[in-house]
Amino acid sequence: MIEKTLKQDEIDALFEAARSSTPESPKGEVRARVVPYNFSSAGQISTEQLRAISMLNDLFARNLTHNLAAWLRTRFQVNLVSAEQIQFNEFLLRIPEISYVASVRLEPLGALSVLQLDLGLAPPVIDLLLGGEGKDGPLRELTDIEESILGSVVEIICRELTAAWQPVGLSFNFERRQMQTQVARVISVNEKTLCLSFEIRMPHSSGLLNLAFPAVVANTILRRLTSDWGRRRRHGGDAQARMGTAAQRIRFGCSLQLPAVRLAAGDLENLAPGSILRLDLAASALPVWRVGGQSLSLAQAVRQGTQRAARIERGFQETDR
Q1: At what angle do helices 144-164 and 47-72 cross, to 10 degrees?
Q2: All residues at 6 or more sequence positions from 195 whose CB lies less than 8 Å from its CB, including other chains
Q3: According to the model, what pLDDT value does residue 116 have?
Q4: What is the per-residue pLDDT for 115?
Q5: Is there a contact between 91 and 114 (Cβ–Cβ < 8 Å)?
Q6: What pLDDT score does 321 carry?
Q7: Cα separation of 145 and 214, whole Å?
């Protein structure tokens, strides 16, 4: 075994190379920047979760717009304004002094959420349901009859919420109206809640519809929404290809029909076996090929072997009616 002894100049060269490969930090520079952690920001809604929440609640807003507009027979527009996480006491501070507040039970979790509706919307809604023109009225407390009528509207809102939130498996059940002094007992005032705000516009009035979900419900909703949304994003292309392949095997009812004609009632009344019914159509008139009830093209009735067939002539247009 041969041992090699380094000379002093070789040792100095090694130390110099080590110092040059690990340069010293400038005086006063801090390598690791320490930032204080704010525990109140924990569990904030991410961009992905907010996108999934907005999709569900946009669906709820559209359905509620169509159904209540048809029920009230007037223009009724609902739009999602915001979705945020705030403490319940902050939500309570936003509730006007005169307002309609109700507790809504969420099944199968068995938890309670809070629904708040501006009472400025109550007079026109009640007036429409009682046969009026939906005119605005003074802001005041409701009578027992008016509260019962508005309760039916809240039940429709809960029904539409259940339909829109079906992907997360939640059912909204209207429980009862809560007085202002009782609302703080529904959810702990220091609990972080998921707050959804909707703007409602009517011809003579407008107001807000606010929903507050407790933390246990919000976490369940966000977890399910994020999982479903991520799964759709990862497998969207494959799912779309499978749906396209499956759709090509769907069978639709189709028919080859002559254009519509008008007949006198007397001609139909006198029909008998062997009668000839004149349709007032030119011999060159082409039948219409209809698929799933939709007119697609004009076609000629032909035979292919032992089966009836249709030979496409040209696309169907409104002028062919």
Answers
A1: 130
A2: 82, 83, 84, 85, 86, 91, 210, 211, 212, 213
A3: 92
A4: 92
A5: yes
A6: 58
A7: 31
pLDDT at 227: 59
Query: Does the structure show a pLDDT above 60 at 25?
Result: no
Tokens standing for 242? Answer: 């499978």
Q: Look up tokens 């507009």; give the residue.
A: 69
| Residue from 261, 211, 225, 258 nearest 78 by CA | 211
C-alpha span between 233 and 260 (Å, rounded): 48
Q: Which domains does the chain have, with CATH numbers?
A: 47-233 (3.40.1550.10), 287-321 (no CATH)
Average pLDDT in the 292-299 region?
82
Q: Please tell me the predicted confidence (pLDDT) of residue 188.
A: 83
Long-range CB pairs of 143-148, under 8 A, 24+ apart, other chains included = 146/122, 147/177
CB count, 10 Å around CB of 223?
Answer: 12
Portion of the chain with pLDDT greater than 90, in percent = 9
Is the Cβ–Cβ distance between 85 and 43 less than 8 Å? yes
CA distances from 296 to 191, 244, 258, 259 (A): 59, 21, 13, 13
Residues 240 and 250: their CA atoms lie apart, in Å, by 15
Q: How far is CA 173 from CA 145, 280, 284, in A?
A: 21, 60, 62
User: What is the model's pLDDT at position 266?
Assistant: 82
Pair 316, 295: CB distance under 8 Å:
yes
Structure tokens at 216: 């246990």
Read off the pLDDT band of 319 (50, 70, 90).
low
